[in-house]
Amino acid sequence: RRGHYAQQARQIDTMDMKNKKVLVLGGSGFIGSHVVDVLLVAGAEVVVIDRSGSDDTAVETLALDIGSAEFVDFLGERSFDFMLHFAGPASVPESVKNPYVNFEEIAHSSVRLLELLRTVCPDTRFIFTSSAAVYGNPVHLPMSESDPTVPISPYGVAKLAVERYCSVYSQLYGLQVASLRPFSIYGPGQRNLLVYDLIRKLTANPDSLEMFGNGTESRDFIFVKDVARAVIRVMAQGLLQGEAYNIATGRTHTTLQVARLIADVLGVDPVISFSGAGRSGDPLNWCADIERLSALNFEPKFKMQQGIEQTVAWYLDHVK
């Protein structure tokens, strides 16, 4: 997959990261792997840390636990310009079921990373992957980074706590850090959340589809390849003074619109019904203000139709 994407990555604008040494935590995962692709095309020297390891021989991958003594030793031995943090869980429902586990896997581990940066490698710039879940139910739309943050799930609380620590570590200790607030990411390689679930259900049963809620719930969906481009923009042009950036398109689609779009791409026409009940911890409507990200010369390149087509093609090739 990496070689295939490299061809596409050359067709989109990336900042020059030539000879920059970048450590990517969780770099074999959904978001991390796409970011690694773009970094390689941009000329960066990339090392991936992922507990699951990887069969990819195109990049150095180490199966280390970021909470281990071995990882501390590794940071002391190697020098990096950037550390990108994509490791950890990304599920609101799981955080509702197991809130303390979620706290340990997100907040505790991430603050430990900040402390390692402060004491071991203070010149390494740090990008933390937060979430739009920090907003909870918005006070208005679109949502800007200066809006109130009132998360309604343990996942959102943990992410917000780390953001606050990032800001404080920057102010007190001079660390160069920034937090990313991705909205609803989808794309090839993702094996959970709405778009994947809808593709899975419609390929299993093209005649009928039952969905949560009532279909009017809306999200700001962003294709994972645009997310990767946005990460590079923040790395190269962000202030890195503890600030946060919405990672989104500034446009919304309802869950019903997404279901219809996926059905059209699959060439099916299901009868769609709704449970009427939402999921605990999920807000009703999200739309991002991306002015802060746009100021870094970022503009989304992939429309929803293109992203769905590529995601469906990946699913049919790799999952079904």
Q: What letter string, H or E per element, gives the SSE order?
A: HEHEEHEHHEHEEHEEEHEEHEHH
**What low-confidence regions span 5 or more consecutive residues with pLDDT below 50?**
1-13
Please give the largest β-sheet: 7 strands, parallel
What is the radius of gyration? 19 Å
Q: Beta-strand level of the residues, as a percent range?
A: 15-25%
β-strand number = 13
Query: How many H/I helical runs?
Result: 11
Q: Distance between termini?
A: 17 Å
Strand arrangement in the largest pleated sheet? 3-2-1-4-5-6-11
Query: Given the C-alpha coordinates, what overall shape results?
Result: globular
Average pLDDT = 92
Structural class: alpha/beta
Oligomer: single chain
Helix content: 40-55%
Plain-language structure description:
The chain is α/β, with parallel strands linked by helices and 320 residues long. It contains 11 helices and 13 strands. It has helices at residues 2-9, 30-41, 69-77, 92-97, 99-119, 154-173, 193-204, 224-237, 255-266, 291-294, 304-318, and strands spanning 21-25, 45-49, 60-62, 82-85, 125-129, 177-182, 184-186, 208-211, 218-219, 221-223, 241-247, 253-254, 271-274. It has a 7-stranded parallel sheet, with helices on both faces. It has a two-stranded parallel sheet with strand order 7-10. Helix 2 (30-41) packs across helix 8 (224-237), helix 5 runs parallel beside helix 6 (154-173) and helix 9 (255-266) crosses helix 11 (304-318). The longest helix is centred in the middle third of the chain and has 21 residues, at 99-119. The two termini are 17 Å apart. Residues 1-13 have low confidence and may be disordered.
